[in-house]
Design brief:
By secondary structure, the protein is α/β, with parallel strands linked by helices. The protein folds into 2 domains: 1-326, 3-Layer(aba) Sandwich (Rossmann fold), CATH 3.40.50; 332-428, GMP Synthetase, Chain A, domain 3. It contains 12 helices and 20 strands. The chain has helices at residues 12-33, 35-43, 54-57, 65-70, 103-119, 139-151, 163-173, 182-194, 223-231, 342-350, 382-397, 408-415; strands spanning 83-88, 98-102, 127-130, 154-156, 177-180, 206-209, 235-242, 247-250, 258-259, 265-270, 282-289, 300-309, 321-322, 327-328, 333-335, 338-340, 355-364, 370-378, 402-405, 426-428. Strand 17 (355-364) and strand 18 (370-378) form a beta hairpin. Helix 5 (103-119) packs across helix 6 and helix 8 (182-194) packs parallel to helix 9 (223-231). The protein is globular, with a radius of gyration of 22 Å. Bound molecules: zinc ion (ZN). Zinc ion binds next to loops.
Length: 433
């Protein structure tokens, strides 16, 4: 039986009241210990003790990613001696940010993933293969590892290694679950095919799929999820997380968005003017952490555009769910009069089996407008590629990006500049001066 905290079975209104009780001490803590927020409260004349309602709270200024980058050290609320680990964001969107965690923060992180593994119906009988980086200051690896430990399940830290090694380990250890990037599952499937065994013949029953979305705007399986499901009968669970939040939102079997855990964060979805969007509308995920000691955040704007779902879930949890990231606010593309976000383009490209690898490039044209180009490696001649791909774009958006056909090696060089942990699929040249 999955463990569901009592508060997650209460109504949304009861959860809000529960969070309000926790918010007062959290704000008081920031005032006492956070150089950044103490300064902000002073400058903006915010009296945290005078906040009486969520409406009052909604008037507190938000915190931007840029502020966290620029004043990173001022967010630290504890003496350096109390820090147990320094983790860092991947830096795919600008300068990496260091996140300092205390012992309690590490326990909170473990508890969060313990709840995530309960969402995906994992038990202490499970053996999970962790196909993600556990070093390089990467938070997710440590979070899943410690969550599994708290659950009493077994971990195998294979990391993001080659498919042959992963399959050998799966067979040898009778692995029952994976934590992996969805596109890597396609590589596992390809390896299984090339070696004449069905991917579904093994012991793996469930996958916690990180880093890439599995759902489209209607919460239906996207091209990537459909491709995996066609070849491998395995339960896929999507998740949303960001390092700064020290919190993940993970789907249950219903697959209707990642579950919010009200004991860990306050979630708001805001429009361009910083006002809450109507339920079901797309808004910027804005987070206030609860129970974080090292680097707590107040109304932190993630830049991720999502929808929230508030009706009770069939799994027994009554918490709101966060839909897939529909785009990053700063990655919004205005191309020839059409507004689009990279994930929707990824979805189109992922749906074409002939495409092996790709990179999307956004730049500013001579006229100051956004330009969109796609570099891809595929099984087709350029003419055949154009014939297949151009209608896919024009049908959906009425505009077609420039398509550049390249060798596998050329794409690999674009995807791994420097020492990236993850392949780069989007190059945004617009904000580089
Ligand atoms: Zn659920």
């Amino acid at each position: 039986m999955s463990f569901i905290p009592a508060i997650e079975q209460k109504s949304i209104a009861e959860q809000a009241a529960f969070q309000w009780e926790k918010l007062g001490p959290a704000l008081e803590y920031l005032l006492q210990h956070s150089p950044y927020y103490r300064r902000m409260f002073g400058e903006q004349q915010i009296d945290v003790k005078a906040l009486r309602s969520w409406e009052d709270f909604a008037r507190v200024p938000t915190t931007s990613k840029e502020a966290l980058q620029q004043y990173n050290n001022d967010f630290l609320c504890v003496a350096p001696k109390a820090v147990r680990e320094y983790m860092s964001t991947s830096g795919t969107l600008g300068r990496p940010v260091t996140i300092a965690l205390t012992q309690n923060d590490l326990l909170r992180l473990a508890y969060n993933e313990y709840l995530s593994f309960h969402c995906i119906e994992a038990t202490d009988e499970d053996i999970f293969q962790l196909m993600l980086t556990l070093d390089r200051q990467f938070m997710a690896g440590v979070a899943y590892y410690s969550g599994l430990s708290l659950l009493g399940a077994a971990s195998i830290r294979t990391g993001p290694g080659l498919p042959a090694m992963q399959w050998d380990t799966i067979r040898q250890m009778k692995t029952t679950g994976l934590v992996a990037v969805p596109s890597f599952l396609l590589k596992l499937i390809a390896h299984a095919k090339a070696n004449d065994f069905p991917a579904g013949s093994g012991t793996v029953k469930k996958v916690l799929a990180i880093g890439e979305s599995l759902r489209d705007e209607e919460l239906q399986p996207n091209a990537l999820a459909r491709q995996i499901a066609a070849e491998w009968d395995v339960q896929l669970y999507s998740t949303y997380a960001a390092t700064e939040l020290q919190t993940a939102f993970t789907e249950c079997r219903a697959g209707q968005g990642g579950h919010h855990h009200p004991e860990l964060v306050v979630v708001e979805l805001l429009d361009d003017r910083g006002q809450p969007v109507a339920p079901g509308e797309k808004g910027e995920v804005t987070i206030t952490t609860l129970g974080v000691e090292g680097m707590p955040l107040l109304r932190y704007r993630t830049g991720d555009m999502c929808r929230g779902y508030y009706e009770p879930c069939s799994c027994g949890r009554h918490t709101m769910r966060l839909g897939p990231v529909l785009g990053r606010k700063q990655q919004m593309i205005k191309f020839k009069g059409t507004t689009l976000y990279p994930p929707a383009i990824f979805d189109v490209l992922n749906g074409v089996p002939q495409i092996q690898e790709y990179v999307i490039e956004i730049s500013t044209g001579a006229d100051g407008q956004d330009e969109l180009a796609i570099y891809l490696h595929c099984d087709m001649e350029p003419a055949a590629g154009d014939e297949l791909l151009r209608p896919l774009f024009s049908h959906r958006w009425r505009v077609v990006p420039r398509l550049h056909y390249r060798s596998a090696e050329a794409i690999r060089q674009l995807q791994y500049p420097g020492h990236n942990r993850k392949p780069v699929k989007l190059i945004d040249l617009r904000h580089i001066s």
